[in-house]
Design a protein that fits this description.
Layout lengths: L1 H17 L3 E3 L9 E6 L8 E6 L4 E4 L12 E3 L2 E5 L2 E5 L2 E6 L2 E7 L1 E7 L3 E7 L2 E7 L13 E3 L1 E2 L6 E9 L5 E4 L7 E4 L4 E12 L5 E13 L3 E10 L1 E2 L22 E3 L5 E9 L8 E7 L7 E2 L4 E10 L1
Parallel strand pairs: 2-4, 19-23
Antiparallel strand pairs: 1-26, 2-3, 5-12, 6-7, 8-9, 9-26, 10-11, 12-13, 12-24, 14-24, 15-20, 15-26, 16-17, 16-25, 18-19, 18-24, 19-21, 22-23
C-alpha cells in the first residue's frame, strides 16, 4: 500500500509538472540570427570571420560593435575584440539545424592566433548565451565579467525554466587552461555544461554601488553526454536554499570575484554584490539566465564540449 501511495504521488507530480503554462523568452526559439562579417587584422592573417548573434535576421558587414538588435535580450560569447589595435573575432555560438529546426549550438573551442606566422597564441573560449549585453570591442582578456552586463529587469516568479537540450561530452577527463598570455596547461577533471536561472532583488546605494538579495535559484550542471531531451524542467527554488539536500556550493551567492556586472543609474558598469538570501515570498527585480558549454573559470574548458539548446521558456 505504501509503495502504491508514493507511486500515485509521483504520478500526480508528473501531471502537475507537465501542466505548466509556458512563457517563451523572446527569440528563445533561436529561429532568427544576425550574421556579422568581421575582418581580422592583417598582422594575424586578415581573415574574414562570420560571427552570429540572436536577434531578428539581418547581416552586418564590417568591424562594428554590436548592440542588441530588435529588442533581443540575448548576448553571446561571440565577440569582436580590438586589443592594442589588433582586430580579432571569436565565434563559439551558432545556429544549428537539427532535423529541420534551428537551435543554438554552444561549443568550447581553442581560438588560434598567429602573428605573421611567427607567434602562436591559443585561447580557450566557451560557447555561452545569456540575458544581457556585451560591450564591444573587447580590449583585453582581463576581467571578462566587467565587459558584460548580466541580467534584465523581471518581476515574475516562475516555477521552472523549461527548454530542449542535448549535451555532447568528449571522452577525455581533462580541461585546458589557455589565456593566450602564457603556455597552455592541462588540468585534471572534465568540464561540465551548465544552465542556470537566478532571480535577484537589486538596489543601488548613494555611491552608485549595486547590491542584491537572491530571490530564486535554479542551476544544473551536466558531466556526461545527454541525448536530445524535450521540455526539460529546471526547478526554481525560492529563498535560502543552503540547507536543502540538493544544494551545492556553486549554487551560492555571487559576490567578490564571482559577482557579475550591471549598469547603475549613472550608466557605469559595476559589480552586483549578492549580500544575502531574500525571503521565500519576495518579488524579484531582475533575472539572470545563462547556458554554457563550461562551468569553470574563464579561459578553462574541455575542447569539443557542446551544448545544444532550444525553446527556452519560463514555466508557471
Amino acid at each position: 500500500m505504501k509503495r502504491i501511495f508514493f507511486l500515485t504521488l509521483a504520478a500526480i507530480g508528473a501531471i502537475n509538472a507537465s501542466a505548466l503554462t509556458l512563457e517563451p523568452l523572446k527569440y528563445g526559439d533561436f529561429s532568427q540570427w544576425v550574421t556579422r562579417h568581421i575582418t581580422e587584422s592583417k598582422v594575424i592573417g586578415g581573415k574574414q570571420k562570420t560571427v552570429y548573434e540572436i536577434a531578428p535576421a539581418a547581416t552586418i558587414e564590417g568591424n562594428k560593435p554590436y548592440v542588441n538588435a530588435g529588442g533581443s535580450p540575448w548576448a553571446t560569447s561571440n565577440v569582436y575584440a580590438k586589443v592594442s589595435g589588433v582586430v580579432k573575432a571569436s565565434n563559439t555560438v551558432s545556429p544549428f539545424n537539427r532535423n529541420g529546426d534551428t537551435c543554438a549550438r554552444l561549443e568550447a573551442k581553442m581560438e588560434e592566433v598567429k602573428v605573421l606566422g611567427l607567434i602562436n597564441m591559443d585561447v580557450m573560449v566557451a560557447g555561452s548565451i545569456f540575458l544581457g549585453r556585451v560591450f564591444e570591442p573587447i580590449s583585453s582578456t582581463k576581467g571578462p565579467f566587467s565587459k558584460m552586463e548580466m541580467g534584465v529587469p523581471y518581476t515574475k516568479r516562475p516555477k521552472a525554466l523549461v527548454y530542449d537540450y542535448e549535451v555532447i561530452m568528449p571522452a577525455n577527463d581533462t580541461r585546458t587552461k589557455s589565456t593566450g598570455l602564457s603556455s597552455k596547461k592541462t588540468l585534471q577533471g572534465r568540464d561540465n555544461a551548465e544552465v542556470y536561472i537566478i532571480l535577484q532583488k537589486r538596489w543601488e546605494d548613494s555611491n552608485g554601488k549595486l547590491y542584491a538579495q537572491r530571490v530564486g535559484t535554479g542551476r544544473e550542471r551536466y558531466d556526461r553526454s545527454i541525448p536530445w531531451t524535450k521540455g526539460h524542467q529546471l526547478p526554481i527554488h525560492y529563498g535560502d536554499i543552503t540547507r536543502e539536500p540538493f544544494y551545492k556550493p556553486w549554487m551560492g551567492l555571487l559576490n567578490g570575484e564571482r559577482a557579475y556586472y550591471a549598469r547603475n543609474s549613472k550608466g557605469k558598469l559595476v559589480p552586483v554584490e549578492e549580500v544575502g538570501w531574500a525571503g521565500p515570498d519576495e518579488t524579484p527585480t531582475h533575472v539572470l539566465m545563462m547556458a554554457s558549454s563550461t562551468c569553470g573559470e574563464p579561459f578553462i574548458g574541455t575542447e569539443g564540449l557542446t551544448l545544444l539548446i532550444d525553446n527556452i521558456a519560463f514555466g508557471f
